[in-house]
Amino acid sequence: MGLRVSILAIFLGLLWSTGPYFYKGHKGCSDCHIPHYESEASCVDCHRGNPGTGRTQIAHYQLIKGKYACFTILESPVVKAGQRLIDTSGCRRCHETGHQGNRMASNLDASFDETLPEALADAIINPAIFMPNFYFKETDVTRLVNAILDSSAVYASTSSEIGRIIHFEEDITDRDNTFNKNCGSCHRVLTQQLGGLGQSDIGPNLTGIFTEFYYKNFRDGNSWNSNRLKQWLKNPRDIRANAQMLPITLTEDEFRHLIHTF
Fold this sequence. Notes:
By secondary structure, the protein is mostly helical. The protein contains eleven helices and four strands; from the N terminus they run H-H-H-H-E-E-H-H-H-H-E-E-H-H-H. A two-stranded antiparallel ribbon has the order 1-2. A hairpin with a 3-residue loop joins strand 3 (188-191) and strand 4 (195-198). Helix 4 packs across helix 7 (138-155) and helix 6 (117-125) crosses helix 7 (138-155).
């Protein structure tokens, strides 16, 4: 009888130390963390996690850290600053966010359910090949992640990631591609037809140059189109007095091929 009581006592002790909080009359997350914004939402609403267990790894599963949870606050200045960065940095040239943008790379509206904030931050700080390195400050990375999550929380259920193959290696059969031959020594571009082209980041990334999401930096704040690109290639300094790019001479066939590439 005494042995059974001892075994039962040990078993209850294990439940007490490793089991869910309801074995101990817990208060959830507030057992370990100081509550804040209690009138706005619960801990889980902002940070995810599982408040029903005392096991840290389970309780903190897919936890959103405080600096990445600003998007859950209405009219957050952090989110607004991130949205401005998305616009000024031209993120939508390649990505869809806020249900707007080109799908040349990952659909950021699918991030909320599929990607941890830390992974988004790492992708911005250590960009993949063909993604420009913007050298954002840490505070700006936090703002961008919050802006992405803010939009993704709204559109995640209606957004999906489409599998796509991007050819990062040089295609031996396409070495005479007009872009690679005439532009690739200074520029990169992501294309739907040929994947990634170009070998250098000396000049700006030209992905989405003819779309509404590219910088409006032709002349007098105008967007780019095929006629304006032709003018630029003929003599960049006719458009911008201090342009460092040299004129590029193309045949009509080469120019048509270049336009088709974009």
